[in-house]
Amino acid sequence: MSTITNHMPTAELQALDAAHHMHPFSANGPLGKEGARVITRAKGVYLTDSEGEEILDAMAGLWCVNIGYGRDELADAAARQMRELPYYNTFFKTTHVPAIALAAKLAELAPGDLNHVFFAAGGSEANDTNIRLVRTYWAEKGHADKNIIISRKNAYHGSSVGSASLGGMVGMHAQGGIPIPNIHHINQPNWWAEGGDMTPEEFGLARARELEEAIQELGEDRVAAFIAEPVQGAGGVIVAPETYWPEIQRICDKYDILLIADEVICGFGRTGNWFGSQTVGIRPDIMTIAKGLSSGYAPIGGSIVNDEIAEVIGNTEFNHGYTYSGHPVAAAVALENLRILEEEKIVEHVRDVAAPYLKQKWEALADHPLVGEAKIVGMMASIALTPDKASRAKFASEPGTIGYICRDRCFGNNLIMRHVGDRLIISPPLVLTLSDIDEMFERILKSLDEAQADII
Ligand code: PLP
Q1: Which cofactor does it need (predicted)?
Q2: Number of Cβ atoms within 10 Å of the Cβ of 63
């Protein structure tokens, strides 16, 4: 077979892709016939495809390329580390400098007493770690039955068996025999779709109190932890009403339930603080991290745990770990990424410059005839599509049909925006400039207008 390169005709690349490559979260049969778009290069906030089209990536890949594409410093950090020590593990009484330095840096950045890091290769693995961490923690404290983890419907915590069980995605639970036992799901704080006649504030409290009801029903001595994303990402960028998180924190404190904040999307500046937990005002015992940790340049994730959990787990041999836990190349890349985030004040750029400008424009989208609510936290945002704002009505078509039409129009206009059912979402690179934002809005409005014409 001849060498496959960027210079081959798109159709040939697509044919080989269809013949051999199984895409995640895709119906590979129809996708193969349609042909996947071949991305060849990227720089800043723009992708280039095999036809030479420039695409504005308003999703930062999969919510991960926080510092933008094409930063040579990360490539150099990877090459340096590969030459010096491409791989070694940290299992059997060994360690190495990139893992030490990254763990220490994360302990410095993470709030409160979150001072200890267990590394993984991504968010799913890290959440699997969390399941075993919290159950082992309680077992070590003499409460082996305190092993139920409460999560939320429509949450996304990853795609491995354990993390997908924590997640609350109906479509995922329909395949492959999940959830595993002792995971319990309560309702999500999605006021637009489920708030009924309640005010957002009433609804936020009611949904938080479902956690208390679940604990009382399952038994305080059975519930180990509650896990949630500070802002639900893959569920459609669902921003909880302001009353929600203080009540969740109160309940976790009252019943001695560990709080796991899944920061895989919200971490590393996305919400205008280093961590989403700081934005929503919670004190997690464990944080899941991945994605923005390396800006997606290398696969790395982890669990940051507090002093108490680390001490208790430290009393036993924790029979858990991955070949790539603390991978030196990925750790070196992550360290360089954190250096750039810090030295270039990218979190401050989000908080003081980009997010306020984006917010003002985003919220104005609610004036478009197709749009109901427009929600935004930092650099993650969503709009709910509706045929009638006043009643928050759903479209008569199969859920997701209108969202898909809009997303397709965006794709056609060289804008990557995602749809979750009939919500459209963005999560752009954090380095988006104000003129990038203007350009993005031109494409969004054009796509929405075209979609509206398609629907009528
Ligand atoms: N947790 C959250 C909140 C996520 O959004 C994701 C991925 O999108 C994951 C966990 C899983 O991370 P990964 O895909 O790196 O396994």
Answers
A1: pyridoxal 5'-phosphate
A2: 25
Helix (H) or strand (E) holding 28: helix 28-34
ipTM of this predicted structure? 0.99
Phi, psi (deg, nearest 5) at residue 313: -65, -35
**Residue of 264, 265, 304, 322 with the most ligand 1 atoms within 8 Å of its CB, for mutation:** 264
Pocket mutation for ligand 1, best pick of 157, 263, 286, 289 (most atoms within 8 Å of C-beta): 157
% the chain with pLDDT above 90: 98
Q: Whose CA is nearest to atom 10 of ligand 1?
A: 157
Cβ proximity of 301 and 121 under 8 Å: yes
The counts of H helices and E strands in the chain are 18, 15
* Residue 158 CB less than 6 A away from ligand 1: yes
Q: How far apart are CA 322 and CA 91, in angstroms?
A: 9
> Given pLDDT bands bounded at 50, 70 and 90, which one contains residue 456?
confident
CA of 140 to the centre of ligand 1 (A): 28
Atom of ligand 1 nearest to the CA of 301: 15
pTM (two decimals): 0.98
Q: Kindly give, in sequence order, each residue whose CB lies less than 8 Å from that of residue 356, ignoring residues fewer than 6 positions away.
A: none
Q: Which of 130, 152, 227, 265 to mutate to test the pocket of ligand 1 (most atoms within 8 A of CB)?
A: 265
Residues 6+ apart with CB under 8 A from 289: 106, 123, 126, 263, 264, 267, 268, 301, 302, 303, 304
Distances (CA, A) of 221 to 143, 208, 274, 330, 335: 8, 20, 33, 39, 40
Report helix, strand and coil shares of the chain as percent, to nearest 5: 45, 15, 40
Q: If you ran DSSP here, which 8-state letter would residue 365 be given?
A: G
Q: Where are the alpha helices (H) located in 265-400, listed in sequence order? A: 276-280, 307-314, 328-343, 346-349, 355-364
Length reported for the chain:
456
Residue 308 has pLDDT above 90, yes or no: yes
Which residues have a Cβ under 8 Å from the Cβ of 448 and sit 6 or more positions away? 365, 368, 370, 371, 406, 409
Whether residue 220 contacts residue 256, with contact meaning beta carbons closer than 8 Å, is answered with yes
| Residue-wise pLDDT tens digits, 408-422 | 999 999 999 999 999
